Amino acid sequence: MSQLGPLTPVPNTPSVARCGGAASAVVAPIHLVGVSLVSRSAQEEGLMFLLLRRHARVSRRRHTPVVALLTALLVMVGLGAGPASAITYGELDNAGHPAVVLVLMEVDGQPAYRCSGTLISSTVVLTAGHCTGEPGEFSGMRVFNESDVQTDTYYPFGGGPNSVEATGWYTYPGFTGAEFYLNDVGVIQLAKPINLQADEYGQLPTANQLDSLKPRASTTFTSVGYGLQRVNNNPNNLQLESNKVRMLAHPYLVQINTGFTGPQSLVLSNNAATGGTCFGDSGGPNFVGTSMVIAGVTSFGLNGSCGGTGGVFRVDRPAVLAFINQHMS
């Protein structure tokens, strides 16, 4: 599920590199949780490192300036999974946010990665741009709408009572893998509706609604997703929890409208006191306070243990709202 609980930062975590002063930082998308269909023993005996090498090739191909340790976070689903009660710093969402779904992406017809997303209508899911990808990046998608996907025997394939196939997916204009965080929003259209109560769907903010928010501990959000519960940055002693269950955390606003965030992002807390987001939570919602208004989608992290802070792509900018509404019909 969602690692909506950060990890205690481990020693030797490299500092975040910066390019051109404080205007930009080396960041990495936090959706790429690989789907593995092999046994846990096979995973533990080396397939993890095959994935790490594969991710390193992807990073170079896209010329993404990713800190070396971040390549260690393309992890196989299920590796090190434990009981849901072992989740660190987050809370089980259960039926609290039924609009939040797990997004499964396929490559060449095979399950490959997972993200999170939010139903903003019965047939439209809001997620991150790096979860819908560049043209041709993903060959198929489906969503799972139960709170506990860990026990879904159909996952990662479709055909079960709690999954719906996508008929199309669309990424915000200007999105590139190399600088994903600048335009990191996407929309998925579903083949059939997922019917909820009207007030259970995610709601879009008004234009520039977030500009009035002040960075402080009382400016809180509700982050929801299906990502990792725990991960460290040591590939020689990998420790992670990756239960596919929906969880939530309550981070507070750290930065907005700064040289680091630009006009498009927020930075939220990610620590033992507040919880936070991690790999697999990408695309999931960060609701304003305890409302159903989506401030933005989980976008990036700054280190390999998902601690410290987490990045959110804002959806309150007029051009972003126009893009989303274009695909609502």
Which structural traits does this protein have?
329 residues; mainly beta; Thrombin, subunit H; six-stranded antiparallel β-barrel; globular
Task: Describe the protein's architecture and organization.
With 329 residues, this protein is mainly β. It has one domain (25-326): Trypsin-like serine proteases (Thrombin, subunit H). It contains three helices and 20 strands. It has helices at residues 40-61, 129-132, 318-326, and strands spanning 18-19, 24-25, 28-29, 33-34, 91-92, 100-107, 110-121, 124-127, 140-144, 163-171, 186-190, 221-225, 230-231, 240-241, 247-249, 253-256, 265-270, 285-288, 294-301, 308-314. The strands form four sheets. Strands 3, 5, 12, 15, 16, 17, 18, 19 and 20 form a nine-stranded antiparallel beta sheet that branches. A six-stranded antiparallel barrel has the order 6-7-8-11-10-9. A hairpin with a 4-residue loop joins strand 1 and strand 2 (24-25). It is globular and about 45 Å long. The model is unreliable at 1-26 and 35-88 (pLDDT under 50).
What would the principal axes of the Cα set say about the shape? Answer: globular
Main beta sheet: 9 strands, antiparallel
Name of the CATH homologous superfamily: Trypsin-like serine proteases
Overall strand count: 20
Q: From the helix content, strand content and strand pairing, which structural class follows?
A: mainly beta
Return the string of H and E elements: EEEEHEEEEHEEEEEEEEEEEEH
Radius of gyration: 18 Å
What is the CATH class designation? Mainly Beta
Question: Can you give the helix content as a percent range?
Answer: 10-25%
Based on the coordinates given, report the CATH architecture: Beta Barrel
User: How large is the count of helical segments?
Assistant: 3
Which topology does CATH recognise?
Thrombin, subunit H
Pick out the low-confidence regions. 1-26, 35-88
Domain count: the total is 1
Distance between the termini: 30 Å
Estimated share of beta-strand residues: 25-35%
Give the oligomeric state of the chains in this entry, treating copies of one chain as homo and distinct chains as hetero.
Answer: single chain
Can you give the mean pLDDT? 75
